[in-house]
Amino acid sequence: MSDSKQLLIDQYYHIYNRGNNNELLFREARNYNYFLKLSVKYAYPIIKTYAYCLLPNHFHFLVKIKDCQSYPTSRAFANLFSTYAKAINKAYDRSGSLFEKVFHRKMINDDRYFTSLVVYIDRNLQKHGFVDDFRNWPHSSYRTILSNRPSRIERTAVLEWFGGPRGFEEVHTTEFDESQIEQFISDGVAQTRPTTKAIAITWGGIPLPQLTQL
Questions:
Q1: CATH class for the domain made up of 12-201
Q2: Of 102, 128, 144, 148, which residue is the least packed, with the fewest Cβ within 10 Å?
Q3: Based on C-alpha coordinates, what's the Rg of the chain?
Q4: What torsion, rounded to 10 degrees, do the Cα atoms 161, 163, 168, 174 define?
Q5: Is 161 exposed, middle or buried, given 0-12, 13-18 or 19+ CB atoms closer than 10 A?
Q6: What residue ranges of the chain have pLDDT lower than 50?
Q7: Residue 104 pairs with which residues in a beta bridge?
């Protein structure tokens, strides 16, 4: 479930993927929780995370690859995706590939794009019409960054990029030209939304304290 391009140590990446044939990856709140728990188990030994957003049919992460010789980067994401797919197949009596065959990765080689990419990831859900206000979505790093809760997100670094919490909030409510980061997002991921029924199941009305946050 990964392509032939190796993830390089000390490099930043936009990592993303979607459901096979635009199928739902997350049907219920517990699916989001489980995916994040697996991320901690398999991916966190080799990454630092600066932003993420889990949507019903795809996901986005902004990460930096750590130097962890005892845990090969080539297997981390493959283990994450395969373990999650097996669990979903068993839980919902399905078979076959859950994810697209490769996960997309875009190396971020210029720190001028960091803030724009963080905003793009946080607002992606609203862009695709899943919600009216991205700030109310519990399955992203946006509210975690603004909270004081213990977190594995690189909160301090992200807030420094934006000049503090106030700057972080202000930039997120300001429109920007996505063409400036086109090279980091241009793979056409998830241009369609699942059915209204599926979105209702995904949201589920679950109280926020029960949801997993990184």
A1: alpha beta
A2: 148
A3: 16
A4: -100
A5: middle
A6: 1-4, 188-212
A7: 16
